[in-house]
Hints:
Elements: H1 3-30, H2 38-52, H3 59-88, H4 95-101, H5 104-125, H6 135-153, E1 158-165, E2 168-175
Antiparallel strand pairs: 1-2
Amino acid sequence: MDEGKVFQTKLDQIATEMRALELLYERYFSGEEKRAPLKERNALEKKLRRLTTRRIIRTDHRFRFESLSSRYHTYATRWDRVQRLMDEGRYVRHLDRRRSNISSSSRQRDNYDTLYDSLILAHRECSMASPPPGRSQFNSFLERQKAQIQERFGKREVEFRIVIENGKPKLRAKAKK
């Protein structure tokens, strides 16, 4: 594969991971998640640091990398500031506004989008020959799986995640208690 395409793929992967990390932090700050996504943040930061030491010859790649890096550092500054406010007890969550603006279906759609992004990343990591499923096909599959699990375990919340087993991305589902 051409070195330029490999580097472009790395930049695409970083952009996707950054979007997923942004969503995870928003969920953490809103109180949906109990812990900050530090593991994901450290992994993304490590990838950015690794590319910082590399000499990027193509101008378009250098521009895109610097844009991604700058965007990450802007997010990191905001996340650190909000975390500090939370630790000091001065952060006010805007849950009332959020409840009125965001329905559970849009929250579910955000979860599915994050999960789909994870599937794409896993698909790239495994270097799969076949293309990944389309977003709408993936979402309808998740809805069918959710309905089957809720039928078997009651109307409990269902949590999905993507794992890599034997060099292939797999979907894991878990009924919350």
